[in-house]
Amino acid sequence: xxxxxxxxxxxxxxxxxxxxxxxxxxxxxxxxxxxxxxxxxxxxxxxxxxxxxxxxxxxxxxxxxxxxxxxxxxxxxxxxxxxxxxxxxxxxxxxxxxxxxxxxxxxxxxxxxxxxxxxxxxxxxxxxxxxxxxxxxxxxxxxxxxxxxxxxxxxxxxxxxxxxxxxxxxxxxxxxxxxxxxxxxxxxxxxxxxxxxxxxxxxxxxxxxxxxxxxxxxxxxxxxxxxxxxxxxxxxxxxxxxxxxxxxxxxxxxxxxxxxxxxxxxxxxxxxxxxxxxxxxxxxxxxxxxxxxxxxxxxxxxxxxxxxxxxxxxxxxxxxxxxxxxxxxxxxxxxxxxxxxxxxxxxxxxxxxxxxxxxxxxxxxxxxxxxxxxxxxxxxxxxxxxxxxxxxxxxxxxxxxxxxxxxxxxxxxxxxxxxxxxxxxxxxxxxxxxxxxxxxxxxx
Length: 444
Prior knowledge:
- It is a single chain.
- With about 450 residues, the chain is mostly helical.
- The protein is built from 19 helices and 2 strands.
- The protein has a two-stranded antiparallel sheet.
- The protein is rod-shaped and about 105 Å long.
- The longest helix has about 55 residues, at about 190-240.
- The chain starts with a helix and ends with a helix.
- Helices cover about 75% and strands about 0% of the residues.
């Protein structure tokens, strides 16, 4: 059908001057070797040359150049391997259909009397090439879908739309170069080739820079995966040794995140307080069993070890690059508003805001959780106790915010349920949330 349409649309004048057809054919073949990639999209100078052929010659010569350039490219790239030849031929067929349609659109505009040297003609060329590109992509997407690939809509969203600026730019170049040739004649072809080469050199450098940025973000994500993975693994290990402490940390993370959200904190602050709360008791990893599983009264030496756990946890987390702020929050989670806390006896607003939120969730969970150390109290009794120590031990503002959340939503954490524990860890999500802002800063 494509061959028939090409033959029917062919005119003798399309192939004149013949030197121009030969020149564009050679440039089309060579241009396919000059290409850049954006995601899964391949952009080549050959496509721009085909656009020039559509505008300066006609649909039939443009289709012929397409066949020659794409088949030769398949031979050079794939060495005539049968499985690649089949795909290449299907791809060439799709391109030929789209080029034929685009060339006919330009011819219709010219036959309608549109001045071939005008800006309007250049815009028609741009539109025709853009339509041809879209048809070509859709035909390829249909082929991929038929052979078990993703849905066409998904291919458009994931591959075509992100690459649209890079696809459109060469189309405008082709429209401008076609108009330049029509106005200035054959000598302008040399200038056009120089401009085209410079354009693709710049495009390749821009796309290469974009790919380097994406690779840097991926490496940053991998680094965050390793770093946060080590810490969360420690939480899981602590869970095997002392299930209550690990699940207590997960519960405090849920409560502190809710307080931060209620207080109007940014999404980044909410992520930070959640992660800091997950790790706030990581310093207990080094506790001896006599402290972790104590049933009787602790000695002064034991209490000294307990009071060291914010410092030990902060020191451990601070060794992970990028988690310095979280380490500062962990360090201060046992400070008190009246300055009687530890380790540095910080008063009031000198305590980091997110540490004060964690303290509220920490005290509440200690009172309400069902563990082996103490008899739990009911949520209303726990809220009453939080309000009693507000202004001395805890920040009164965050106590009231948390009380409002509990009374409105009846928030709770099931210490005996594995689901609640895993939901708060959400390792992969935590890694990506932590890595994302860091990657943007590095790439800027």
